[in-house]
Amino acid sequence: MIKSEEFTRRRRRLMEEAGNEALIVLAAAPERLRNGDAFYPYRQDSDFLYLTGLDEPEAVLVLRPGRESGEQILFLRERDPDRERWDGPRLGLDGAIEALGMDDAFPIGDLDEILPAMMEGCDRIYHLVGKDAQLDQRIIGWRNRLRAEQRGSHGPGEIVALEPLLHEQRLIKSRDEIRCMRRAAKISATAVTRAMQACRPGMNETEIMAELFYEYTRNGCPSAYLPIVASGANACVLHYIRNDQPLPDDGLLLIDAGCEFAGYAADISRTFPVNGQFSGPQRDLYDVVLAAQHAAIDRVRPGEPFEAFHEAAVATLTRGLIDLGLLDGSLDENLEAGHYRRFYMHKTGHWLGLDVHDVGDYRIDEQSRLLEKNMVTTVEPGLYIDGGDDIPNHFHNIGIRIEDDIRVTDDEPENLTSAVPTGPEDIKALMRS
Question: Are strands 367-368 and 158-161 parallel, antiparallel or unpaired?
């Protein structure tokens, strides 16, 4: 778990980068109605969670560098025994100071009264513009009210997007964040391993998904996203989420799944034979994807461009497709023309953290950004052969993806999810066990 001291350090660092003439405003995620009077499970906004650690709705964080009576202020719900009897405990004003390290706390109902005065003397307001339309309008209203009530006062002249500052900060993971991600990876790896061991002909995709959720739930973790449990031709649908079809006895099963621990996500993909034994064509394609993943992971090193491991995967996949007769021509010709995109149409990785597709730019000044220590990315090459008159029948409807979570270190990449086997013989042994 993340200690309150780290949340305080994050807020201080953000204020230092914003400057003394800035005001920073972030809102908690709202509760969302599912239907009737039933709500979806609550998930805090990742930016708000990163800066506060608070897992409650109806809250606004305000950071005012240089404010003598307190720079870090949280507006939130007060304690309410009657409502807490129905909905569970609230942190309350005192808890915000004691548990979250805030300088001050006020009732959320006082936001409209107090916040305009905090804008006095500010040049700019940092805010996640466009993320919460209601808050966008309130900020404009507070600024206009300040200017109307105090003619000639020095109010904020501009509203600035907070993302460039905050998301760059989130991109490099701290020691405690890495610990949380290792924990999420360990639980997710156990869940995927469990599903692989449970798999056998005659089952349904739903039953495999249940094995994943069992492992998450027993460890007190929610799913980081709706998993993909795609058998046979379903694996050629990149974002397949129906997860309700019978498993083909002689087909492959592709699982893409991960849980959250303390808000931090894992993301694992494995593809394996339902009956525990790869056919010849399945094994041929699988070996190509596995070789591509090995080549890509080896390029996840400090100083390497982010694009480098994608290029390594693409070159290996393309060479394999040529060797298997699925592409004609030379390697250079196919790479230049992008012919591999018929069978491999996505990138090889994405940032990972509080979001599965985590924040942070991939390019800086139109150049692929260089990897740095404690960035975490997925590495997930794949091949999707959904058929065609020019494709040999034995390759039809085979979809394969292998994905691991990789931390950039000073030297060798750290594979957070290596506990789930990828070698074909290791997979066979696991499923037999």
Answer: unpaired
Contact 289, 282 (CB under 8 A): no
Confidence band for 152, pLDDT divided at 50, 70 and 90? low
Token output for 307 = 């694009």
Residue with tokens 């569970």: 88
**Which residues are identified as catalytic?**
37, 239, 256, 267, 346, 350, 357, 380, 384, 401, 403
Across the chain, mean pLDDT equals 95
Name the token pair of 121.
């003397």
Please give the pLDDT value at position 154.
62
pLDDT digits (tens, 9 = 90+) for 21-67: 999 999 999 999 999 989 999 999 999 999 999 999 999 999 999 88
CA distance 267 to 380: 10
Convert the chain into a string of H (helix), E (strand) and C (coil): CCCHHHHHHHHHHHHHHHCCCEEEEEECCCCCEEECCEECCCCCCHHHHHHHCCCCCCCEEEECCCCCCCCEEEEECCCCHHHHHHHCCCCHHHHHHHHHCCCEEEEHHHHHHHHHHHCCCCCEEEECCCCCHHHHHHHHHHHHHHHHHCCCCCCCCEEEECHHHHHHHHHCCCHHHHHHHHHHHHHHHHHHHHHHHHCCCCCEHHHHHHHHHHHHHHCCCCECCCCEEEEHHHHHCCCCCCCCCECCCCCEEEEEECEEECCEECCEEEEEECCCCCCHHHHHHHHHHHHHHHHHHCCCCCCCEHHHHHHHHHHHHHHHHHHCCCCCCCHHHHHHHCHHHHCCCCCCCCECCCCCCCCCCCEECCEECECCCCCEEEECCEEEECCCCCCCHHHCCEEEECEEEEECCCCCCEECCCCCCCCHHHHHHHHHC
Residues contacting 47, CB < 8 A, separation 6+: 26, 128, 162, 166, 167, 170
Q: 213 pLDDT exceeds 70? A: yes
Cα 234 to Cα 217: distance, rounded to the nearest angstrom: 26
Report the phi/psi class of residue 397: left, alpha or beta, with left for phi > 0 and alpha for psi in -120 to 50.
left
